[in-house]
Amino acid sequence: xxxxxxxxxxxxxxxxxxxxxxxxxxxxxxxxxxxxxxxxxxxxxxxxxxxxxxxxxxxxxxxxxxxxxxxxxxxxxxxxxxxxxxxxxxxxxxxxxxxxxxxxxxxxxxxxxxxxxxxxxxxxxxxxxxxxxxxxxxxxxxxxxxxxxxxxxxxxxxxxxxxxxxxxxxxxxxxxxxxxxxxxxxxxxxxxxxxxxxxxxxxxxxxxxxxxxxxxxxxxxxxxxxxxxxxxxxxxxxxxxxxxxxxxxxxxxxxxxxxxxxxxxxxxxxxxxxxxxxxxxxxxxxxxxxxxxxxxxxxxxxxxxxxxxxxxxxxxxxxxxxxxxxxxxxxxxxxxxxxxx
Length: 341
Description:
With about 350 residues, the protein is an alpha+beta fold.
């Protein structure tokens, strides 16, 4: 027991730092702004220099649905599989899943690689997820049958089912579901109790959604990403993979639209929304992570789940929520918390 305490077990609570008067005031102002905006914020945690400065949680013992924050953890699993020589960025999905290739495949189907899935550049003009996941058939085959309108690698279109294929690829080459594959590689090193992750009818973790984590789990992942893959002095995620995940790999645009639609949207009555100077969804996309303003990057899940990493401030901000207006949610963070860091 003495040795465990001396070494600082990963399951120890994250350390608390001394909060400045400026941050204390900023945090109170932030919470008031959240209340004034009628945002349904479930938890928020602000960390700097590896320590928690401020937090508020409604149900700290409750695991929250991550929605698309799940994608960042699937990408991490892909990174481990690449490091171990089991996958490669240029692997083609038709080679990974020959059993799901349609009898008469589309011409550009054979061009789609894992890199295209990671960067949401599979060539689809519309996200096929909701049209396919509602059925009980072969989701991978459904993805392959969905119309490919653009050359893979040339058009960003948010695509959650593409992340499901990444999860399936990891399971195919490792023989383990992603949640199990990450047990010794990520969950244990970060001190995260093995979480629940939803599965498809085929018994594959959904990848792009369906993961449940606690607020402090998000903070641990955020600190690891901030540290270039290191957590408590140990390299957990390969540093080069963190760099690639968090880099601006391709142009980006929010869910529900694709890159080719942006010029017209910027001329429409929604032009103010599609202004890169004010929109955190137009800063570029990495490997299942978004770039932000202020040279930050984030894992991002529907209705307000965030891991926001701010390297310039050596800081992380995490939230769980039910806030459909995610643009308003992140703007309050920039307005109130960022200046106090």
